[in-house]
Write a structure and sequence with these properties.
498 residues, 10-stranded parallel beta sheet, 21-stranded parallel beta sheet, mainly beta
Length: 498
Amino acid sequence: MGFFEGRKNKEASSEIAGSKPYKIKAVKFFAINWRLTLLVAILFLLIGIGPIVVHAAACASTADGNWSDTNTWSGGGCTGAGGLPGTGDSITINNIVTLDTSPTILFITIANTKSLSADSNSRTLTLTSTTGTLFTNNGTFTANNSTVIMNPDGNVSVTSGSFTDTNAFYNLTLSPTLTTNRTYTAGGALTINNNLTVSSSKSAGGLSYLRFYLAGTTNVTGTTFATATGWALTYFTTNNYSLTTNIYTQTSMYGFLEAGSSNITITGSGASVFVVQGLGYWDPGTSTIIYTGSSATNIYPTTYYNLNIGGAATTTTYTAAGNITVTNVLTIVSSSGTNTFDASSRTITLSGTGTPFVISASEVFTPSTSTVVYTHATSANVSSTTYNNLRTNGAGTYTAAGAIITNGDVTVSAGTLAMAANDLTVNGGDISVVGTLTQTSSNTTIVTTTGLHWRSWIYYLWQPQHWWRGNHPDHHGGWRSHYLRCPHYCLFFRHQHL
């Protein structure tokens, strides 16, 4: 046995016998470091330190044909089975391609003068890239009855290029599962020939939101949905661009509409064409909501900034489905037909200044058994029309824009109702004045025609007067005139005997 071989054997025996523990410690040290490295890697995965970036494989069509045909992609760099596009591919359409399957890819670009056309079998195209622009159309996109789904957990641009007219989507669904707050932004005007769905979800871990921003005029022929599930919130932000949709609905408690200064036109008819429900809300901003349904339509009970009722060529009755507040202007829109607003039994609160209730010529306000309340703190004009109950309830001066008729009560809860030179006709109910009721002409009349007893309090220049009024026929079967004496002016009351 040689010297070196015998030495090696001796050292090996000594190590096994434990006389050289330093080598055993080295082994333990490396074992600990291996375990520590594994532990750190697991922690990084658990706490989600940054997204794992998957570099897209460039995949391009090389021939005209169907998406499912390998010849369409031959030599195109695709990573899917048989050379077809795979889930990790970014696709460029360089030819005339028919979508005859329902693939999932990262993102897609249609090259100039080229096209992607879905067949008639309700295909889905799912786009998952967490960065960049998901769908770029520099050529032609024919959606047919397909659905494009965009669901990455990232901040992305939804579109670039043309997606209106013949390039419109059929269904567009934005539906990420969130780990944190995300934004989706449209790249310009959009047309969706069926439904637009903006929906987020999150299973646990605290609230996160998806905020979708419009970036141009958006038209939806069907329904626009804003919804969320679990620990997610969905904000549909019009970003001051116009939205036209048949129906807008928030189908869960966590959908939110941020209207900005947009015009939002609801073209649908029926009971539920604009719906904000559950804990969801909408921020009207300085927007205008326009109802243009072509047959009987309910007006959703909520607070609007501007509310326009009726289209330019509609003959429709629009009915208040609950109490409505308009903070700027409520307009019954001029039509080549006739637009009718039926206030039903609801309270319509008008808090704008100027003329907060505009009834265009030839259009109709049906008061039914409603109450209309003017509430601006400084001044407003009271529209000349027939009300059921009319109330002023603010410190301002409310000036009659013309003759006013009520079928119920007139209540001046605060401020001043200034009739100017206009008549006030009360066909039923009481006049109750806690503020001030004034007129500027001795020809102004306040008339009751019911023949019923009525009683009121007037505070005129803070001087109370009280009276009891009933039928007061004269000896000729006509009417009698009565003056109520006031400190400086007199209101002229005429009671009509029927």
